[in-house]
Amino acid sequence: xxxxxxxxxxxxxxxxxxxxxxxxxxxxxxxxxxxxxxxxxxxxxxxxxxxxxxxxxxxxxxxxxxxxxxxxxxxxxxxxxxxxxxxxxxxxxxxxxxxxxxxxxxxxxxxxxxxxxxxxxxxxxxxxxxxxxxxxxxxxxxxxxxxxxxxxxxxxxxxxxxxxxxxxxxxxxxxxxxxxxxxxxxxxxxxxxxxxxxxxxxxxxxxxxxxxxxxxxxxxxxxxxxxxxxxxxxxxxxxxxxxxxxxxxxxxxxxxxxxxxxxxxxxxxxxxxxxxxxxxxxxxxxxxxxxxxxxxxxxxxxxxxxxxxxxxxxxxxxxxxxxxxxxxxxxxxxxxxxxxxxxxxxxxxxxxxxxxxxxxxxxxxxxxxxxxxxxxxxxxxxxxxxxxxxxxxxxxxxxxxxxxxxxxxxxxxxxxxxxxxxxxxxxxxxxxxxxxxxxxxxxxxxxxxxxxxxxxxxxxxxxxxxxxxxxxxxxxxxxxxxxxxxxxxxxxxxxxxxxxxxxxxxxxxxxxxxxxxxxxxxxxxxxxxxxxxxxxxxxxxxxxxxxxxxxxxxxxxxxxxxxxxxxxxxxxxxxxxxx
Length: 579
Fold this sequence. Notes:
Blueprint: H1 12-28, H2 30-36, H3 50-70, H4 77-96, H5 112-121, H6 128-158, H7 170-175, H8 200-231, H9 247-259, H10 265-289, H11 296-304, H12 314-329, E1 345-350, E2 358-361, E3 371-376, H13 388-395, H14 400-408, H15 415-418, H16 436-452, H17 459-484, H18 489-498, H19 504-516, H20 522-542, H21 548-557, H22 562-578
Parallel strand pairs: 1-3
Antiparallel strand pairs: 2-3
């Protein structure tokens, strides 16, 4: 006789299984552990050897078999959701593994040199043991660098290599680690600040040993890698992911990985064209509202040349963003959300010349690290003030910061869902899911909440919002254009320049990112459209009983693939209409 609902209990075997999986993940990927605030493995680095990836593949199949064996025993809805997301986690990696995306571990965006410093910034430095762990990681870096080279050699043998665009400036970035004086290395700053209870002898010892590792171990390893890149590594001639071995299937798998959809590249391309036309129509109305008798392109060209629309300095930009985050957006969040993050949100400069306009790094689950909104200050005089509000909503609240904080601060969500390892995007589709459409779709949807929060009354701020939405629609066109429809890089650049308010520098940075991370850029608009579709559906069917706070809570609780979000929203609608 089946158990009645009141007799149903959480399945302890499932809880133990997913906890075992999470504990394996953080032990297997020590960078990830540090990132989320687990410091048990701060003396180790990620194993990037081909053998390690094969071990992860076999381990994932073991976990999947155990999960499937538990499935018939589950009755509680929350357990069924946990199992569904867990299986998705495993199947994503297992199905993507044959494509071996991890064979391109270096680019101008990513690599050990980049991830290493972010990881170090998340370490704790309070005791001598903490500094010993740092030196262990410094000593292990040459091995990890060698593993990267071996992956790239394997990639060359199989014809799976980056395009030259993805390697631009890499020699300069890596070259900063090739030093004769340790004080000139980016690895040196952590060895210049010590707790007050450290003795002079302890500090001298750590600095002496650290300097030796930096100059005698790390610098030669990086120099060897640079020589390999300059002499041996051969990039592919075609920008298209479809030009890689089994390329058409690879790009389709990348679309599935990043968007949770089965749409074809052609369908996505046409949808992008349609969205571009719709958004440009809205922007044209604003041009008329402002009293200008000119085309959208003429208006965009005009405001690009007007200095009043741009920040005067990096400091001006950062203070502007902090004001928007703290004084403009935060006081209004409670009108749309029952959850408000406890985690602090800091605005920090990112001075990278090839970086994006901004990005968010989630806080740690133990609360020791705040969420950080990195704003690119290198091109401060190319970033219009009227896009700052929509960008802050995307990266901060109610976008990525609220989204990630909801998971991290959850008292009931399993650990493997609470924190996301969003490093190493190059590994896609041969990686555990980034839930890109859920993450980036939510952030883009959050930008549109400026209308609900009554923040877009200024027509220029509204124009800025549509400008950034237009960029995401353009991505559907140019990503599929380059990777499936034989577009050249120049064709993609020209299209973006014709259909966005971005500067040429910003557009070229965008296009080069799409070349380096095929399919990733599709997730923003496709995720946004799905969330808007579900909200409209719920609002239409529930009428006056539609609760926006409840809708947002349901979506945020669905950390995972978009089909889960759709099923949970539909279940809510069905339940509410039957009452």
